[in-house]
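Researcher: Structure for this, please.
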Amino acid sequence: MLRGPRAAPAPASQAADSARALFTARQAGAVETAVRQSRGLEEFFAYIRGQAGLTILDLGGATQQNVSFITNLGHRLYSEDFLQILNESFGPDSAVDQSNAGRIEYFLRQALDYPEGHFDGVLIWDVLEYLAPALLAAVVERLHKIVRPKSYMLAFFHSDNKLEAVPYYTFRIQDVNKLEVAQRGSRHPAQLFNNRSLEKLFGPFESVKFFLTRERLREVIIKV
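Model: Predicted structure, token format:
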């Protein structure tokens, strides 16, 4: 059975002309939103193009837009609100020690409790840089187990490794190469990465490919 979202799905995007604008009136409670091209997303969908009945995992939480886009391509989508589960397991902004083995196992059961080789792809988005080394290693190891060989994963990392706090986002798929990116707030990263450290992190995987965006996000395609 498909696991449902832990929160109600976000509503579908507004009309394309208004979605393309960048809103910065955060003082009035608005959300900073932009639509942009994504080469990483394009490469992810190039892998699944022409296939049907695949099983995809979205770690950004359920949004109606992503659910509709993936299912309209003929695939199944599982959604997990990874950051919400992280907050529930370790406290807001990961205040509790993430090296505790018991808490790590609890977190993996809540967020990534799936059979081996269950998924044909994972939309990781920007969640991994909020994990301290012990938890991150456990999550990457679990992803390696639950994703089928030769499948692709897409992850985002901030390219400025000197930031004390970084924005975190909701990503809504507009097209196979286009994302609506909405800033949800800011958060202290547990660690930041350069290309070399990401290659080391994903060393057990077949390959890692990088794309740098104008938002100074490093898009990373990982082939399992």
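Researcher: Any notable elements?
Model: Residues 4-30 have pLDDT under 50 and may be disordered. The chain has one domain: 27-223.
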